[in-house]
Amino acid sequence: MHPTSGGKAERPPKKRYSETSQESFTFFSLGTNGGPLESDCSAHLLSDGRFQEIISIDGGGHLSALAELIERKQLTVDVEERDSQVATKGISQDNVYAKAWLFSEQRIKTFLISHCHFDHIYGCVINSAMFGPQNPRTIVGLDYVINTLKKHVFNNQVWPALDKAGFINFKIIDETMYTNITSSLSILPFPVNHGSSFGHELKSSAFFIRNGLTDRYFLAFGDVEPDKVASDPLNIYIWKMCANLIAKKKLTHILIECSTPDIPDPLLFGHFCPRHLVEELCSLQSLVIGLGGNMDNITVLITHLKSHPLQTIDPAAVIMEQLEALSKQFSLSVTFKIVQRGQFYRFS
Fold this sequence. Notes:
Blueprint lengths: L24 E7 L11 E5 L6 E4 L5 H9 L7 H4 L13 H12 E5 L5 H10 L9 E5 L1 H11 L14 E5 L6 E2 L4 E13 L2 E12 L4 E6 L13 H13 L3 E7 L16 H17 L8 E5 L11 H15 L5 E4 L5 E4 L1
Helix pairs in contact: 1-3, 6-7, 7-8
């Protein structure tokens, strides 16, 4: 597996990536689509610079996405290096399914779930039968996420209660403190709004991820509703903490959704579009400036774009055009990048 430097998304270089990298974070996306394609659902791999202990931020895709990206050589996994017994078992070096299986089994121990919509949990659920008591995975989230998974998914009706068999462990994380997830990364969750559905208010999550070795931070959102639309604004609390970290030059990258080009608020259904994203980032920028900092080095990674086979325009191109035009209009000083599936980003 080969990350690139400077937060740029590029094809992996031929030279093997050094496991002594000083970068704080390695980010690799398995799925960026907000629907309806089930083959490209939300799942992002995050680790420190070594890319050894990996957290899956959401789990809409997993094993099949790993296999596809290995087959396309966007993720390099040496089977003999990963498991010395593979060669003696007669497994072909071209068996991408085996490579994906081993990569997941040995490096991706944790799924950090923002909310329980299927485009964010599908891969984690369907692949959980492969985990097994010898290599269980931990599913991490806020209390309402874990309780929903246990009650409505892993309930022996929708899907087997694999926690009872030791295939998975559920872990509720505290909103008031960082929880260690790997040897270098810890998580602080925040609840966010995700609109309403037939009168029921939905909640999602955002996560501050801290590299304890470098004291650098990354902010990742699940699906999220703009504060201007929400009945109980919650994003502002995240922006206040984020502003402090930016002003101290401890955070440079934010992962957030922008599902569609600008559309009327009643059609958002708990998501961001460019005008709302820019408005919220302008609020963040005002807080940062108030603390004596600036947003010049901030990269906003855009994900969760919704697709439609009959669209005559590229939604990604329209979203980027609108984001850049609005940023210029309101003097927002950030760089936008639309996350590319199967490409590495490395940053401090």
